[in-house]
Each structure stands twice: as structure tokens, then as C-alpha cells.
Amino acid sequence: TSEGMYQHLECVASLAGHNDRVWHVAWSPDGTMLSSCGGDRTVRVWARSAGEWKCIASLADAHERTVRRTAWSPDGKLMAAASFDASVSVWEVGSGPNGFECVATLEGHENEVKAVTFDSTGKLVATCSRDKSVWVWEVEENKEFFCLSVLREHTGDVKSVVFHPSELLLASCSYDNTVKMWKSGATDWQCVDTLTGHSSTVWDASFDSTGNRLATCSDDTTVIIWQRTEAKAGQPQEAQVDPASAATVATPATESEPAAAAATNVRWQPVQTLSGFHTRSIYCVQWSHAAHGLLATAAGDDAIRIFAENPTTSQFSLLVSNAKAHDSDVNCVAWHPKHPHMLASCGDDNLVKVWTLA
Questions:
Q1: In this predicted model, what pLDDT tens digit does every residue of 131-151 receive, in sequence order?
Q2: Between residues 254 and 302, the one the model is more confident about
Q3: Rounded Cα gap, residues 193 and 233, in angstroms
Q4: Cα dihedral sign for 134, 124, 86, 59?
Q5: Nearest-5° Cα angle at 213, 166 to 173
Q6: How many angstroms separate the Cα of 226 from the Cα of each of 61, 71, 196?
């Protein structure tokens, strides 16, 4: 790849419209629309027409408090918005007077909902909240939502949830400094691993396109890259490089274990820590799925940073950064799903920006 050629992040659009901080941006799966949400309790949807970005919808009536995050279903037909009013609104795309109609409201969390995400099939939704729980919902045919599981193992506010790109596996990040991995079992979702490595709140997590690696970011100003390792029946896991990380590693599978149980004995190990780049809390980390080996971060130091993977060593190093991407905290960064060198961001300066790597 020619990643070495990129010199800077070029802002190609600065989108004003929100009148309070913007918390999150998300691309529709085909990349034609960008949703944003924030402290003004609205969701805005942006699209480019005749080369210019315009707000094509402003969804203002669904929530009484801050809208913290939005997510699109994989077929692009639904968009969900999580709010501090303890509810999640679900919108049908392509219906209603402005192209978005609220078709469902997910209620059950005790207080602020921090995130919402769809799985790769579009049949499941996960939500998480300051009430320390993660809820998994099933999307019914008639756009009704049924709660399958309430997961209560975190001991603090759950900041973010993200599904594996192809498996029934869910990662959640918390104020308790951990990331928990949840797997769909025979009757319920179960916690199959707890990733301990950050020394403060874990704000966000992102799987790479294969789902074999996970990037997490934290208030401790670091990003940790985790690699999935599997212990097969009868084969002890490889010796640990660092004894300090042993807590996050499974005990080796033994002969006496049933093969099925040992086969699911998957653990996540830290393989690299990116530290010393951001000077304040890192709120968002995003693995590009359109370009190989690119990670983007957004942080409280007003900066966006892009890290590139060395294909030989699989280690990441800083590629480009924009120290003043927004006038204050950058809350989110999102890679375009199709265009490998385009990303969007948003911040406490009430703005949404679109960038290209140039």
C-alpha cells in the first residue's frame, strides 16, 4: 500500500447545524448519508448533492435529552439513536415526510443510554447504559424489538458496545476500566472474557475487518490492540511473553475438557499499546474496513490521529495527525465504509467535519 504518501488530513467540509456539542457521527452502510447527534437532542442526517454536503433531515422530536449515539442497520433500512432520556429511538429510512419515520422506541434502561449498535445480520441490537447493563434485543419482522438478554457484569457505566463483524460476539467498554466479551450461548448471552489493561475508563472499541483484532481506547490516553488467540483441545496455549498480561489469558485447555468447550476457549491478548500520542482522554477509536491497516482516534486534546500498520511487523505507528481538528474535544471519528481515505468527525465545537487523507 502507499500509506507512506499521506502527509495530512484535509478538511473537505465543515457542517454547522447542531447548536450544542456533537457527540457522534455514523455513516450509512453505503456511505451516502452521515448521521450526527448531540446535546441539542436532535439527530441530523447529511448527504452530498452536487458536490456539496447538506442536512437532508433533522429529527428533533424523539428525545427529551442529549442523543449520545446513532447506528445504522447493515441493510441501511433502519437507524437507531441512543439518548440520555433512557430510551433508544428506531427510525425507518425512506419513509415519513423527511425520509425518516420513528417506528419503535426501546425502553428498559434505568437511565442514560450511552450507545446502540446493530450486529452484522441486522437481526440483533445491543444497547448499554450508565445503569451498568448491556441489553441485547432481537429485531422482529414487524419492526418490533424483543429483549433477549440483560447483561449485568460491569461494575460501572457502560460507555460503548460493538458487535464482531461476522460472529455472535459482543464487546462492551466501561467506566470500570475493562472490556467484556459476550458470546451467545445455548440459552443466554454470557461473558466469555474480561480484558484488563487500561488504567482508567475505556471509552470505545473497534474490531478490524477480520474480527481477529480489537482496538480499545481509554481515559488513560492509550490505545491497546488485542489479538484473539485460541486454545484447541489438548493443546496448551502458547507461552506468555509478558507475565503481567496473564490475567487476561485463558488457562490452557486440558485433555479432560470436552472438545466443544475447549474449542470456544478464545481469549484476547494485548499485542501493542499506543501511548504518548494524545495528551488527553481518547474517546473514539475506529478501525478502517475500507483501507487495510489504518486506525483513527479522536480525543479530548482536540486532535485526530491516524495510525498505520506495518504489514511486516503488524505494529502500528503514527501516520498523520491534526492537532486542532476541532476547537475543543473531538468526540468521535468514523471512517467512510467505501472510500478508503475519507472520514468524518464531530466535536464540542458543535461541528461535524469531513476529512480526506491527502
A1: 999 999 999 988 899 999 999
A2: 302
A3: 18
A4: positive
A5: 85
A6: 40, 24, 11
